[in-house]
Amino acid sequence: MATLTQDGRAGLAASVKARNIYLGIGSGQTAWDTTTPAESTASSALTTAVGYRVATQKDFVVTAPGTGAISLPSGRYDVSATQTNQLYLRFTLDFADASSATIRETGIFLDTTPNSGLPAGQQFFTTSEVSSAGTLYLVEHIAAIIRTAATRETFEFVLQF
Q: CA-CA distance, 7 to 82, in Å (whole number)?
C-alpha cells in the first residue's frame, strides 16, 4: 500500500495554488432561508450562480493554535514562507460586486475562464462574462447574505491536502 507523503501533499497544494482560483457566489433557492440543504459531493456547479470573484489572496499556511494571525472556524493559521499542505484562500467582494444579490451558496472554482475582451484588471465577473466556470472544488450552502453597495464581504478558506 502506498502512502501520500507530506511533500506530496504540499506539491498538490502548490499545483492548486498555481491555477486560476475563483469564488463563485449563487443565490441558491429561497426555500434555503428556512432549511439550508446539505452539500453534495456530486455537485459540479452552483444551483443558481450569480458571479465569480478572483482570489484576493493565496498563501501556504501552517496551523498555529491560539496565536495564528488568520482565525477561521477550522482553527488558527499563520502564513508560511515555505510550501505546505495547507492553502489559505481569501476572496473579498467589493462594493459593486453583485451589489443587489442575495447569496446562499459559495463555491471554489479552479480554472474559471472569463470571456476575452473584458477590461484588464477586472476582478468580478457575472455569469454572462464567464465562458467556463471551471471545476467546482468545494461548495458551501450558507445563511442568506443580502448584498448592498455599502458593504464588502470576505470569504476565507483553508484547503487541506
A: 11
Could you tell me if 109 and 45 are in contact, meaning their C-beta atoms sit under 8 angstroms apart? Answer: no
Beta-ladder partners of 57: 90
- The pTM of the full predicted model, rounded to 2 decimals, is 0.94
**Cell numbers standing for residue 129:** 462574462
Q: What is the mean pLDDT of each run of 10 residues along the chain (161 residues)?
A: 94 97 98 94 97 98 96 97 98 97 98 97 98 98 96 97 96
Q: Cβ neighbours of residue 141 under 8 Å, at least 6 residues apart?
A: 28, 32, 36, 37, 38, 39, 104, 105
C-alpha pair distances (Å), 89 with each of 17, 53, 135, 139, 142: 9, 12, 16, 14, 18
Q: Are 116 and 91 spatial neighbours (Cβ–Cβ below 8 Å)? A: no
